[in-house]
Amino acid sequence: MICRHCGADLKLTMVDLGACPPSNSYLLPEELTAPEKWYPLQVMVCTECWLVQTADFVDREECFSARYAYFSSCSTSWVAHARCYTDSMIERFGLGETSRVLEVAANDGYLLQHFVNRGIPCYGIEPTESTAAVARQNGIEIVSLFFGLALARRLVHERGRVDLLTANNVFAHVPNINDFAAGIFEMLSPSGVATIEFPHVLQLIHKNYFDTIYHEHFSYLSLHSTRTILSAAGLEIFDIDELPTHGGSLRIYASRSDGVERTCSPRVGDFLNMEREAGLLDSAIYLSFPKRVEKVKNDLLAFLLQMKKESKSIAAYGAAAKGNTLLNYAGIRRDLLPFIVDRSPGKIGTFMPGSRIPILAESALRETKPQIILILPWNLREEVADQLAYTREWGAKLAVALPSLEIF
Ligand SMILES: [Zn+2]
Questions:
Q1: In this structure, is residue 239 part of a structural domain?
Q2: Distance 73 CA to ligand 1 centre (A)
Q3: Are residues 261 and 395 located together in one domain of the fold?
Q4: In CATH, what number is assigned to the domain containing residue 142?
């Protein structure tokens, strides 16, 4: 096994989560009589470039099947985040009606709609047909292919380079991260800017967010590793923002090193120092991780068994990919968690991969009035708690398993 960026041998294991099916391979009722493919899920660290990465990966066609059902617009806080981003980019980089904006992984158009509303020419790339179709219905132009150097060359030839390229929560999800970075370089005009958002690996480690580990999430990025990867592709990072999304993310700003010169914000150097001091360039921090992961699993299992002993009814909210990692790693099945509700129409009526727990519409909560509701997407905890305020009517308690078990 070699590093997907620098090709060095991978020797340092950060965590071994056993095996599970691809996180987004939700099962249709008729598929319950068939077997599922389980793949090992292990995270390794390259001690040369310090890229944290999954050891094994499945074919991406399988990971991003047409049924892949995450629609960004389902999260109101995420849509609001996108609007703030659009306003700030338009102002900072003086974007207008002659500018060109490209979003890679445009999903259902949750972000580009704000550029469309401001009259700025834009289009998106989104290989998942079900979400791309929604974006098109909303008047957003979508190219349904995987992004990389080959596609970038074609797009530059057909449409020209872009002034702003947005890549939110996709850089960590590509198997060939070098090719993706090369594609970004190719797409940018000499004065163009790419912004890339990704969950910061230090948050994952400090806050125990091991459920953000799944096969389709190939890399777990720091500023150090991202800078190394982008720099090899001819891109330079000139600024960063720290964001609260996904439990703590980074937005980096990059431009071509052969393009218009930009002054680098002191924030970049400060953040690199912080990462070094936090130990990201040393093995010890990674070696201490598995113990804390085990504790989350054991605490959750003990809690679910206790609830069963006390005959308390329980359900979960949010059939997210993270939920699949947690449930499969902890070996939780229907006997401990009878059902999960979700707002995505594409997921309702399907079953969680591996655990095979049924996914129902949110109305099932009102019908069954569970006493405990476990929120699986902890990163949307506040938003979900507001949304579930009505469950207090029957005295339901809410719970999260991460960063540590909490009932509130
Ligand atoms: Zn490496």
A1: yes
A2: 35
A3: no
A4: 3.40.50.150
Per-residue pLDDT averaged across 369-396, rounded? 95
Residues 6 or more apart in contact with residue 140 via CB below 8 angstroms: 106, 109, 112, 113, 116, 122, 123, 124
Q: pTM of the prediction?
A: 0.89
pLDDT in tens, 131-187: 899 999 999 999 999 999 999 999 999 999 999 999 998 999 898 999 999 999 999
Residues spanned by the domain of 177: 72-286
In tens, the pLDDT along 55-108 reads 866 565 565 554 555 666 667 777 888 999 999 999 999 999 999 999 999 999
How high does pLDDT run on average in the chain? 93
Distance 258 CA to ligand 1 centre (A): 25
What gap in Å lies between CA 332 and CA 357, rounded to an integer?
Answer: 9
User: From ligand 1's centre to the CA of 45, what distance in Å?
Assistant: 8
Amino acid code (one letter) for 20? C
- The Å distance, Cα 98 to ligand 1 centre, comes to 40
Ligand 1 midpoint to CA 160 (Å): 33
Give residue 40 CA to ligand 1 midpoint distance, Å.
21
141 C-alpha to center of ligand 1: Å? 36
Position 354, amino acid: G
What is the Å distance from ligand 1's center to 235 Cα?
18
Query: How many structural domains compose the chain?
Result: 2
235 and 86 both lie in a single domain: yes
Residue 65's CB: how many other CB atoms inside 10 A?
A: 16
Half-sphere exposure of 210 (CA within 13 A, CB side): 28
- Residue 293 in this model has a pLDDT that exceeds 60: yes
Å from CA of 229 to ligand 1 middle: 9
Phi-psi category of residue 361: left, alpha or beta, with phi > 0 → left and psi -120 to 50 → alpha: beta
Q: What span, in angstroms and rounded, lies between the C-alpha atoms of 119 and 99?
A: 10
What distance in angstroms lies between residue 264's CA and the mean position of ligand 1's atoms? 25
